[in-house]
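cron nightly-structures :: item 1 of 1
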Amino acid sequence: MSLFARKKTFVAAPVEGRELILTDLDGVVYRGAAVVPRAVESLNRAAETTRVGYLTNNAARTVATVAEQLRDFGLRATPDDVVTSPQAAVLLLQQTVPAPATILIIGGDGIEEELTRAGYRITRSADDAPDAVVQGFAPHLGWADLAEASFALQEGPNGEQIPWIATNTDWTLPLERGLAPGNGTLVSAVHTAVQRLPEFAGKPETPIFETSFERFGTRNALMIGDRLDTDIQGAEAAGIESVHVLTGVDRPKQLLATPQGARPTYILATLDGLFEPYPETTVEKNGTVRVGSARVTMDGHIVRVVSEGDDALNLLRAGCGAIWRSGLAIYGLKVPEVLLEDHWKLSLDR
């Protein structure tokens, strides 16, 4: 968020001047089988003038399957518009283990398709002496699959180890019934067994962004996401601006607490806000942060709401501005309950 003390009330709409919009899927476009309100209309509108790329850390499905699902929701999407963590994993793998090496895969069709397309041999058994392991999420994965990865990744007699690439670190997966364990939990199980960490391809790491920039031919991009530690942190690492939309995993409490390096440029309730002039954040002479008619200030470790204003979202933006500007960690602060209220989750669940 901008913290410039100007007299202007608004800055440009988030989409203005962009050549590329990159958007997460789970929690932004859909939650399980349910489409997120106003997401489809907004992304189709954006696609009329700007290239839209759909980024997903989910490695379970092929790009064709993802594109078909998006079209079923009403989006004008093709497989070329979809960038997946398995595609980024292939980019990483090619730097150290060239095809036609044998790769043990722990995951679904998305990983198998991308590795096969790149010329690698595929196995599901550590007994085949794989040259590397690539791990991603799939709903059918169980203990036996994780055990195969562990067997393959154990040190050899001379301490040798094969490369291990994981598609992403998402701890949770947002579904219509709630949050379910994500790929990060499965990677953690293997990590515990082998006492080493993989190299990661998906958000928040940069390979998936670099894959996107190369695919779409520009770095003038805006990232949309619902997770601060993957979507927004990844955008920051890739050097692009970001939108956090309050339709998925991270809520007001997480926004207020997010550290430097994972703070969004814009905070929106729903994606139709992409086209509206964005309320400017200004800092008054006494340090009070103002967004619209909402005003929040810091009194040492106490966060004080000077004025709630007439818009709960502007109040949240002002609260973020004041806390982020203070440089203080959230656990040492006294935060009023009004800043933690989650108006947007209630409206989505109705």
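cron nightly-structures :: done
The longest helix spans residues 312-326.
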